[in-house]
Amino acid sequence: GSRLRRQLESGGFAAGEYVKQLSQQSDGDRDLQEHRQRIQALSEETAQSLKRNVYQNYRQFIETAREISYLESEMYQLSHILTEQKGIMEAVTQALLLQADRDDPALGARRAAAADPFLPLSAKEAAANEEGRQRTLTTLLEKVEGCRDLLPESPGKYLVYNGDLVEYDADHMAQIQRVHAFLMNDCLLVATALPNRRGAYRYDALYPLDGLAVVNVKDNPPMKDMFKLLMFPESRIFQAENAKIKKEWLEVLEETKRNRALSEKRRLEQEALPRPAPTPPESTNPFDEDEDEEEEDEPSAEEEVVDLSLEWIQELPEDLDVCIAQRDFEGAVDLLDKLNEYLADKPVSQPVKELRAKVDERVRQLTDVLVFELSPDRSLRGGPRATRRAVSQLIRLGQSTKACELFLKNRAAAVQTAIRQLRIEGATLLYIHKLCHVFFTSLLETAREFETDFAGNNGCYSAFVVWARSSMRMFVDAFSKQVFDSKESLSTAAECVKVAKEHCKQLSEIGLDLTFIIHALLVKDIKGALQSYKDIIIEATKHRNSEEMWRKMNLMTPEALGKLREEMRSCGVGNFDQYTGDDCWVNLSYTVVAFTKQTMAFLEEALKLYFPELHMVLLESLVEIILVAVQHVDYSLRCEQDPEKKAFIRQNASFLYETVLPVVEKRFEEGVGKPAKQLQDLRNASRLMRVNPESTTSVV
């Protein structure tokens, strides 16, 4: 085979020459047929190999595309970090220039005049300009519905730039809607145009400039003049009217962000400066000195001033941004814990409130990143432990409920993905072994990881139990679809259920027993399988009864007789030898023997499936099956006129009543753990019939 493969795969292979040579060397048609079969087998093997390679490459392509998506997200974050670093450097430059202007006012005035020839000449003109810009902002915002409550007026807010844009879908680059953007000195407002109302808009979104990043989108005709706004974790793409307006948007957005960062830094510097203590008025009364000495002994009634000028506090918001961008979640939470510990016994002053507001914004960003880490959209590889990092940090942030919910959603998606990736091939029992191994191993690992992550949160355990029940339902759906919907035999179904129960018992290692849940979810399908198989047995028994000739069985060979003895012994019939005769004859009817084997096989398989909820279904099915045979024997005894055949029928009836029914009753009691009154009543009714065989009353 390998020699033939090398010959066919060689670069200089000529099909015509190969066939000609093969025809000359072959001994006849049979040799050519064999060679053709070898080539056909090699072709099929090659096709299968190609299919496997294509599937493997396709999976690698999907994984690569997913990793590229994650890399793109990280590149956006990196671009945002670089933009922030650029803004910081420019802010530092501005601060140095400002310090130089303070040292030399004349130099500062000359630099300002050179940089901006239209600089206002007086404070009065500056105030008028500021008032005009605020009046323009108010006029424009009156045209935007729904923004009054979300955008309160403040003395320092003014309009910087505005214009029409077209929004596009980031994935498919399809046009979504036309919008109008209002850039203010501290935020960006996006509004959608109202139909049939020129110049009127409806509020769509509001983004603070602190958390906004601007990225240029390279032109790719016909998609051009676009730029992207990043507001973690989302992003939006807009198209300007032309390249000039796009350039203006990019420049004015960056400039406004820099000015915002600079003004914020100046404000913090002013707040950090120590406030001069008020000087008391000079006293002209000589007795005031004694009063002052008495007042010095009294405690100060002024509020305690919280020192926020510490370097690590000043840099805390920026440090949190860096930690979030670098995915240093532990470092970010450590900084938050340090701040909370420092402010624990401090009064809540206005500067503390403002600092808290900035920090809370970072906490929301950190929470969003951690939530994204636990989302099912992220890679599910690595098992439950891969989520431990994000879960532990969410718990430290005081969001254990959200962490629990996201962790369980992540694991549910992982389990569902693992089940879907199972290939349905070969025997059903082999697939069920794989399915149970994948599901219950994942469930066990999830339970152990849950116990580790949420050890101090007892309130979350009820959520895990609810999740386990939901996951079990998903497992049973896949199980039933393969075992019961495909109409497998009862023996195969019994083996599959047995495998599932054995795997379910593994959960007892962690104190979790879900056996009752799997019973409750499977009871409907098992009932249907028992009733379906019962109908098959009854139909087969009736068919054999219709062809009954009441003749002895001749097995022809001792081997066949020995095999039948072994089969009856495995059914629990220990006295079968008394019904065998000479020369491989059996003094029983084929119908009665076949019924015995089929009924005992049904009982054995049904007992493998048994649990208390199935008791009555199994018992009623057994009684219904046995009644078909009993009624047939009863009817034959009453109708047969030939004395010899009648004696043979009585012998079969004796075997059925005195051997088969007690064996069924005993095996049922052993398997279930308690006797069955219905089977006892059936046997008593048959005893009455044997006492009075001429009775016309049939067994019902």
UniProtKB/TrEMBL annotation:
Comp. bias intervals (Basic and acidic residues): 261-272
SMART domains according to UniProt: PH
Gene3D superfamilies per record: Exo84p, C-terminal helical domain, Exo84p, N-terminal helical domain, Pleckstrin-homology domain (PH domain)/Phosphotyrosine-binding domain (PTB)
Record localization: Cell projection, Growth cone; Cytoplasm, Perinuclear region
Keywords noted in UniProt: Cell projection, Cytoplasm, Exocytosis, Protein transport, Transport
Residue intervals of the PH domain: 158-258
Region entry Disordered, spans: 261-304
Acidic residues bias locations: 287-304
GO biological process entries: exocytosis; Golgi to plasma membrane transport; protein transport
Taxonomy, superkingdom: Eukaryota
Cellular component terms (Gene Ontology): exocyst; growth cone; perinuclear region of cytoplasm
InterPro entries assigned: Cullin_repeat-like_dom_sf, Exo84, Exo84_C, Exo84_C_1, Exo84_C_2, PH-like_dom_sf, PH_domain
Primary role: Component of the exocyst complex involved in the docking of exocytic vesicles with fusion sites on the plasma membrane.
Similarity comment: Belongs to the EXO84 family.
Listed name of the protein: Exocyst complex component 8
UniProt lineage: Eukaryota, Metazoa, Chordata, Craniata, Vertebrata
